[in-house]
Amino acid sequence: MSEPAMSEVVANLNLVRERIAEAAVRSGRAPDAVRLVLVTKTVEPSRILEAVRAGQADLGENKVQEGGRKADALAGEPVRWSMIGHLQSNKVKDVLRFADEVQSLDRRSLATALDKRLQSVGRGLDVLVQVNTSGEASKFGLTPEDVPAFLKDLAAFETLRPKGFMTLATFTPDETEVRRCFRLLRDIRDRARQDAPQGDTLTDLSMGMSGDYQWAIEEGATVVRVGQAVFGPRPLPDSHYWPGAAGTA
């Protein structure tokens, strides 16, 4: 009896994994040096489960309500959820019900809200600091100049564990401009590892989505956020799911 055909989701996932490994090797690192966060926005839990059953453990969501529903649907599965979209302070309680990581920490008020809730439930949280490397007013994130002072402020929040940085490059086919954004974040990370209170814990660079993740890896990404390259195009534009940030995750 022949084996059942591989699903499109699993085939695409395997291809993305291969390309991640190849880009890591091109950048002088081990094939498994880059973590894939599979972006699940608009994707039904049944299709997400196909990827999970193929060994995909890291999942990312942009909207708190949608992430909570999917986390409930996949309860019991060996997955780790990351919040990768803009997070409002009044959604902190809800996001902490499912997220093990927040990649979009971009202001002190959010850090305060997260810390207060984390203190009350007695847990910590991995966080990445979002930086606006494109300089576009429509994008969220700290300016590069504001990062050192923000990291000093973060040192006061014992429940928050800063692990590095996240960015969205300019949404353009111009490879030079996209790589400039990635190199800028890498430089910010390298300086922070020398100067920031958190020092060597700031290792992660979350950068690169479906259209540019191989460039991102070649520029030093340790985390890529890929959705459409695995699940296919979404029915609505990214601006519906991640206001203020054009891009293709």
UniProtKB/TrEMBL annotation:
Domain Alanine racemase N-terminal: 30-235
A family per Pfam: Ala_racemase_N
Positions of modified residues (N6-(pyridoxal phosphate)lysine): K41
Record key words, sorted: Pyridoxal phosphate
Cofactor: pyridoxal 5'-phosphate
Gene Ontology MF terms in the entry: pyridoxal phosphate binding
Family: Belongs to the pyridoxal phosphate-binding protein YggS/PROSC family.
Role: Pyridoxal 5'-phosphate (PLP)-binding protein, which is involved in PLP homeostasis.
PANTHER family per record: PROLINE SYNTHETASE CO-TRANSCRIBED BACTERIAL HOMOLOG PROTEIN, PYRIDOXAL PHOSPHATE HOMEOSTASIS PROTEIN
NCBIfam families: YggS family pyridoxal phosphate-dependent enzyme
Annotated protein name in UniProt: Pyridoxal phosphate homeostasis protein
